[in-house]
Amino acid sequence: MDSVVPDNSVSTAQPSNPVSKNSTTSNAIIESWDEDIEPISRLQIVDEDQKFTENLPEYMGKWGLAEAGFNYNVVAVFGSQSTGKSTLLNKLFGTGFDVMDETQRSQTTKGIWISRGRGMHVVVMDVEGTDGRERGEDQDFERKSALFSMATSEVIILNLWEHQVGLYHGANMGLLKTVFEVNLQLFQNQKGKEKTLILIVIRDHVGATPLENLSKTLQADLEKIWAGVSKPEGLEDCKIHDYFDFMYTGLPHKVLLPEKFDEEVAKLRTRFNDPKDPNYVFRPQYHKRIPADGYHIYASGIWDTILTNKDLDLPTQQELLAQYRCDEISNAAYEVFLQQIAPFRSPIVEKGQTIPELGEQLLSIRSEALQTFDKNASRYHQGVYQKKRADMLTKLNTQLNVLYVGQLKNLHKKAITMFEERLKTELKKPSYNFAEVVEAGLKESNEYFLKGAKEIILPDTDWSYSHEHSLLEEEFGEVSSRARSEEFRKMSKALSKQVETELSEPVSLALNNPKPGMWQNIIDAYKKTVDSGEKVLTQKAKSFNSSKEELDDSRANLKQQAWVVLRKKVDEELADSMILLKLRNSFEEKFRYDEHGLPRVWKPSDDIDLHFKRARDAALDLIPLFAKIELEDGSTFKLESTEDFDYQQSLIVLSEAKQIDISNRFKRESDPFYLEAKRSVVATTAKIPMWLIVVMIALGWNEFMTIIKSPIYLVLFVMCVAGGYVVYALNLWGPLERIISAVVGEATRMAKERVAEGVEKVREQTDDKKLTPVKA
Ligand SMILES: Nc1nc2c(ncn2[C@@H]2O[C@H](COP(=O)(O)OP(=O)(O)OP(=O)(O)O)[C@@H](O)[C@H]2O)c(=O)[nH]1
């Protein structure tokens, strides 16, 4: 169980101004601690059961040392039991270690205690005395605590009475042997690199033997002990000074000369807190280079290793500590890093947005995470730190890579959309050069992508956008070729329309005036149209950056398209009804009109049969002319067939069966003309015969002569004729007719009334007669 002495005044116990290793503080001139000041809190880090405390991190924080980095030192005290170790530490550092009650004279310090020096960044360790009286002959804990102190402290205070000097056992030479041995075990591979300072404090130094003499005696003893220490292989010749520096000091009797004692202790304190003191003990070469924030892990790790009796090898321990702490620091920085990049994930990965200056922001977040890591982890074992840093960088980059890939994809999509929209807008404009539009669009979108992609390539990554860029370029190609096809399609459509317009009239004219050179005229019109179409095509093809093959294909396509349009027009013009109309027109022209184009009036003398036959044959002769598109000499226009276009077949306009059908239908249609012609001859022949006219003149001669001879009749006749002429000339037959009918109607009505009145009168008279009584 950890036992901790309660400290109710931690704040007063804490230094208000942490002392820098390189600065002299007011503590340097403090001669003794005010007895009333609350001692600094202390902690038993290893208890009687050899269990390591779990409260060290808490106490390190409480003492204000957790964030001290390397700016702290560790001192431990060794010595026999009840030699005033705790007293000395309390006086020197203002700590509150238990001091033996004078009356009891029993061991007070059990296990290992730790506290902080007042006003100093010093961890003070009070180690159980090594007398063995309380523990019997069990040297186990002595060795373990020596190992622990040596592994964690820079300065070891070796406390001994003056009268013990020169006595092997009395001066704790056995303990020193242990110290030397464990030191060799711990630092065997670091000869000369890390030294430990042993400050030998001779207590109750009365001064009869000068300190110099005492130190010489002690030094000689130490060399002797060193010689007797069994050394590892390869280190047989190593010297004590390869591993240790020694300092000696004496202190007067505390009980007999308390003031002198306090004075000397105050002087001694400057060695611990005044770097300018020539005997300053915390020289950099003694520092164990354990960052303060990792001290608790290191210390507990050392103790665990000691307990399990494994070989305690400090470099390995330092590496282990570095690994543990670097992981801890890395994880903490990584958590913050994850929180910082979280807001980017949704817009990039889920919403497909691009974030401007993403690279800069990600780099800043990554740098911050690395800086946090570097700040705390760089103090640890360099090999481990560098490796962990590389690991962390990889871990950070893995997370950032998701955003990088997402942003790259979104840039890709946006570049394509940008390109498509630009094409769409530019190609809508009235005059444009396709190749120029495509080139400008490509340049703009490509630059956009490259700018964004370069921006998000972070240093210290193997990221590359070349694959995505090549995919983008492929897609650009597809988009532009789609746009080109679309433009080609539009152009072909426009050309087809143009061809249709240009061909429509000549085809219609030629087919409505059928004659042997008809098809030649149509082909000529076709060639002319195709020529002008080809000119447009060639001009546009330049703008499309078309290859020669593409242009040739387009030309062939144009010819074919134009031919299809032509055939369509021919089919329209030579549909059944149209062809019959054309035949009838031709027939009527020859049959119903004479050579001067005047309508023919058939006379009995005319040979209707012959005329009819000629006209009909001429019309029927047109059927084979219409039936096939061929030139006058029987040859055909040359055009290449393709898979879906059979040119030879397209030359046939009317099949054999169709020709027969049209021929029969026409014959039936033409028959009524023959009959009509015949009837019109009969009608002309059925006129009033001459003799009848002569008879009529002979019979009416007397009346005619009467009118001529009588002036009244003549005048009346002339007036009637003139009146008739006026009515005819002024077109007054209608009104005259209405007047006459109105007059006749009125006259009839009046006549009817008169008749009715007459009848009424007659009836009344009849009735009167009936009513008159007969005079008897
Ligand atoms: N003669 C003498 N006695 C001292 C001196 N310093 C302390 N003492 C007394 O020695 C006794 C033991 O003191 P501690 O400080 O408890 O000694 P310690 O070495 O810490 O004892 P443990 O922790 O039990 O090993 C106490 O009664 C002190 O008063 C000194 O300089 N000279």
Automatic annotation (TrEMBL):
<feature type="topological domain" description="Cytoplasmic">
    <location>
        <begin position="733"/>
        <end position="776"/>
    </location>
</feature>
<dbReference type="InterPro" id="IPR046758">
    <property type="entry name" value="Sey1/RHD3-like_3HB"/>
</dbReference>
<feature type="topological domain" description="Cytoplasmic">
    <location>
        <begin position="1"/>
        <end position="687"/>
    </location>
</feature>
<feature type="binding site">
    <location>
        <begin position="79"/>
        <end position="86"/>
    </location>
    <ligand>
        <name>GTP</name>
    </ligand>
</feature>
<keyword id="KW-0472">Membrane</keyword>
<feature type="region of interest" description="Disordered">
    <location>
        <begin position="1"/>
        <end position="26"/>
    </location>
</feature>
<feature type="transmembrane region" description="Helical">
    <location>
        <begin position="688"/>
        <end position="705"/>
    </location>
</feature>
<feature type="topological domain" description="Lumenal">
    <location>
        <begin position="709"/>
        <end position="711"/>
    </location>
</feature>
<dbReference type="GO" id="GO:0005525">
    <property type="term" value="F:GTP binding"/>
</dbReference>
<keyword id="KW-0342">GTP-binding</keyword>
<keyword id="KW-0256">Endoplasmic reticulum</keyword>
<feature type="domain" description="GB1/RHD3-type G">
    <location>
        <begin position="69"/>
        <end position="286"/>
    </location>
</feature>
<dbReference type="GO" id="GO:0005789">
    <property type="term" value="C:endoplasmic reticulum membrane"/>
</dbReference>
<dbReference type="InterPro" id="IPR027417">
    <property type="entry name" value="P-loop_NTPase"/>
</dbReference>
<feature type="transmembrane region" description="Helical">
    <location>
        <begin position="712"/>
        <end position="733"/>
    </location>
</feature>
<comment type="similarity">
    <text>Belongs to the TRAFAC class dynamin-like GTPase superfamily. GB1/RHD3 GTPase family. RHD3 subfamily.</text>
</comment>
<keyword id="KW-0547">Nucleotide-binding</keyword>
<dbReference type="GO" id="GO:0016320">
    <property type="term" value="P:endoplasmic reticulum membrane fusion"/>
</dbReference>
<protein>
    <recommendedName>
        <fullName>GB1/RHD3-type G domain-containing protein</fullName>
    </recommendedName>
</protein>
<dbReference type="Pfam" id="PF20428">
    <property type="entry name" value="Sey1_3HB"/>
</dbReference>
<keyword id="KW-0812">Transmembrane</keyword>
<keyword id="KW-1133">Transmembrane helix</keyword>
<dbReference type="GO" id="GO:0003924">
    <property type="term" value="F:GTPase activity"/>
</dbReference>
<dbReference type="Pfam" id="PF05879">
    <property type="entry name" value="RHD3_GTPase"/>
</dbReference>
<keyword id="KW-0378">Hydrolase</keyword>
<dbReference type="InterPro" id="IPR030386">
    <property type="entry name" value="G_GB1_RHD3_dom"/>
</dbReference>
<dbReference type="InterPro" id="IPR008803">
    <property type="entry name" value="RHD3/Sey1"/>
</dbReference>
